[in-house]
């Protein structure tokens, strides 16, 4: 069943139930107040009669009869009974009614509503009985019986009004339910259509928001659009990565291919040329190997990465890195620290990778000595790698963490970089909930500062 139909049926059913309850209450209250009003006027009349008889004691039967007759209203009877239920006086203008209802002596006031059948019709009758104790030569009770003539017709009118108004309300409720359901469903239908389009074409597409409703449905549509934005961004990033990566691989592959061609054409006849070709092929192949390793690194860091968190002493970690690098690069790298150990909770291999990336840059883009500072600051550990090299132009600094971004592409080719180092470092530091900042002045040098949360409270 469609949700619009469901909503309109449910609202109508609810409305109908409410109407039925309200109608029953209205009907009961109406009947009760109408009968109560009749009862009050009849009791008032009975009291008047009682007072009349109490005023004097020696009325003749004719006087009594004519008094009762004078007070008689339509379709009613008035009678006076004595203690043994014997009727002393009775006046009526509805004989069948008086015959149907047997007189009853009472010594306290009472009233009743009774349904009787008169002339093959069901009639409602009100009977009021009051004691007649003094003032009359006979002690007895007064009984007034009265057909509730207006009640039936008023009841019919009320039922008719309630019926018609309920029917109207149900029709209105059905229509408004449909209208309401359509209002609610329009954005949802819109969303379903967009999702079906996406599913069919495979192309992310946003939901068109026609008006600002600021409700949950708009929030849903906005969230969906944000999600599509993210997907598009990721989609774009991914294809950009693939094309950048292929572009990066193209140059070394072209070099390899041309040297391989050279070798194919001339074979090993020219020993010098062959040596050069083999050397070049080896260098470029090594470069490709390094590059693919870096690509894999980037790709794996794009996903949710499980870090292997352990207590790491930054001082000893840096010392061991510097020892390794010194052998390879033969450069002066000086480690400065005031206290040891400087402990953080981190993935040691990943932090090591970050420090190597920073040192690798410092080595590549400077000739003088390099300083590494380690310190503790407000629950953070700070690692600062400072070089006195070529520096980075101010306007380039904001792009430096982007994938494949290199300030001087030609020079970077010489240095063999692929522009992924800082991107990887930034991603790893972010995974550690840390921060990486870079200060640089062209021609003077660069300072890269890592803020790593100690995270010791997690232990
Ligand atoms: N210490 C530095 N001094 C001067 N320029 C730097 C320094 N560090 C980074 N850069 C500039 O930022 C660019 C991006 O650095 P990044 O480490 O991401 O890539 P790369 O060094 O070129 O290549 P890779 O690190 O992937 O081998 C570099 O190409 C370089 O232009
Ligand atoms: Mg680098």
Folded structure, characterized:
It is a single chain. This protein has 459 residues and is of the alpha+beta class. The chain folds into 3 domains: 3-157, Beta-Lactamase (2-Layer Sandwich); 224-302, Signal transduction histidine kinase, dimerisation/phosphotransfer (DHp) domain (Helix Hairpins), CATH 1.10.287; 310-458, 2-Layer Sandwich (Heat Shock Protein 90). It has 10 helices and 12 strands. Strands 2-1-5-4-3 form a 5-stranded antiparallel β-sheet. Strand 1 (76-82) and strand 2 form a beta hairpin. Helix 6 (271-302) packs parallel to helix 10 and helix 7 packs across helix 8 (348-364). The chain is rod-shaped, with a radius of gyration of 52 Å. The model has no long low-confidence stretch (mean pLDDT 88). Bound molecules: adenosine-5'-triphosphate and magnesium ion (MG). Magnesium ion binds at residues 357, 360-361, 417, 421. It is found in: Cell membrane. Keywords: ATP-binding, Cell membrane, Kinase, Membrane, Nucleotide-binding, Phosphoprotein, Transferase, Transmembrane, Transmembrane helix, Two-component regulatory system. Its main location: membrane.
SSE layout:
Blueprint: H1 3-55, H2 61-71, E1 76-82, E2 87-92, H3 95-100, E3 110-118, E4 121-132, E5 140-147, H4 149-201, H5 216-266, H6 271-302, E6 310-313, H7 314-329, E7 333-337, E8 343-346, H8 348-364, E9 370-377, E10 380-387, H9 409-415, H10 421-431, E11 435-441, E12 445-453
Parallel strand pairs: 7-9
Antiparallel strand pairs: 1-2, 1-5, 3-4, 4-5, 6-8, 9-10, 10-12, 11-12
Bound molecules: adenosine-5'-triphosphate (ATP) and magnesium ion (MG).
